[in-house]
Specification:
The protein is an alpha+beta fold. The chain is built from ten helices and twelve strands. The longest helix has 29 residues.
Length: 332
């Protein structure tokens, strides 16, 4: 090996060492950060799982943690050992429970998760099916200051878009008040207060039916296969396998469920009508856009003309002509 080759090899060794071990920015530093971050995620997800078990009055065990995290028995045991060492959890036989510090830590993560879901629902066009997974990523990244700013920007909401209560800064959270839709009798008037967002397949099917938290419904028929309800002038049949994921509360005496009302899409060209309400299923940017256009209760709207295909339709609203597609006007 000649001198030039020796110099080249030494240069490559120095370069590789620099890339690998450079302080803060080298590959080794990044590997350590990623490993630490992954460990942090597993720890926080474990605390959240234990809290969910306690909130739903079910036992949390090492096996349930393995299933939730998709980790091996030994890896889950190591995570639990670290949580015990930090005095965040304790054992009672095979049952694992949170200490007060562990509960506050878990509620902090849940607060971030639910605030981020609320942000996605109100301020973005992200699909409902994606809210949970995106919040699962963000809940491990936001600082306390960022969370405080986010909550203030959202108006310090009490519930997330699924109807789950959002813990406050002090870690306080209301007790659940709803009952399963399956417990409601025929003829009862109720309001949806919560729709479980997991598993995502069932959540998607429920939202595709047009059901959302805050929506008043009337149960008109029950069978072993399904429950039929009416809301916003539409009859909806809910498969019996879904109803356990829907919680409701009784409707107050001063509230009313309109069993029938026309939608804007049914208005003939030349006809003028008044807006009564917007469907609860219109959310976020779409809802704000309609409100900004003047589509609010009491507004007079006149159907001016339709396109050759019949969709969209142009409407006169407060001196302006706007075009709405049927999937929008169906919800007005």
């Amino acid at each position: 090996m000649n001198l030039l080759e020796i110099i080249l090899v030494l240069f490559l060794i120095i370069l590789i060492s620099a890339i690998t071990f450079y302080p803060q920015k080298g590959l080794f530093a990044k590997w350590k950060r990623n490993r630490k971050n992954n460990e942090k995620v597993l720890i926080e997800d474990t605390l959240k799982h234990i809290y969910d078990c306690e909130y739903n009055s079910t036992d949390c065990t090492l096996n349930s943690i393995c299933g939730y995290l998709s980790t091996s028995h030994s890896q889950s045991a190591k995570i639990l050992a670290k949580l015990e060492e930090a005095d965040l959890v304790k054992r009672s036989g095979t049952k694992i429970i949170l200490t007060e510090d562990g509960k506050q830590y878990a509620l902090k993560i849940i607060r971030i998760h639910r605030l981020w879901e609320k942000h996605l629902a109100d301020n973005t066009s992200v699909r409902e099916e994606d809210w949970h997974n995106l919040a699962e990523l963000e809940e491990h990244n936001l600082t306390d200051e960022e969370v405080t700013r986010l909550a203030a920007k959202l108006g310090n909401p009490l519930k997330d878009p699924h109807g789950d209560p959002i813990p406050n800064e002090e870690g306080e959270i209301p007790e659940p008040i709803g009952i399963e839709l399956s417990q409601v009798s025929e003829g009862d008037l109720v309001k949806i207060c919560h729709i479980e967002d997991q598993p995502i397949e069932i959540f998607s099917k429920i939202t595709n039916l047009g059901l959302f938290p805050g929506m008043p419904i009337k149960v008109i028929e029950k069978s072993s296969k399904s429950i039929k309800v009416i809301s916003e002038g539409e009859e909806i049949e809910i498969d019996s396998s879904f109803v356990m994921n829907i919680q409701v509360i009784p409707v107050g005496k001063d509230e009313e469920i309109l069993e029938y009302k026309d939608t804007l899409s049914s208005v003939a060209v030349g006809e003028e009508v008044s807006i009564v309400s917007l469907s609860k299923s219109i959310r976020g940017q779409q809802r704000r856009r309609l409100l900004d256009l003047g589509i609010v209760p009491g507004t007079k709207v006149k159907a001016r003309l339709t396109s050759l295909s019949g969709d969209p339709t142009a409407y006169d609203v407060r001196g302006t002509t706007i075009a709405l597609r049927k999937n929008q006007s169906d919800k007005i």
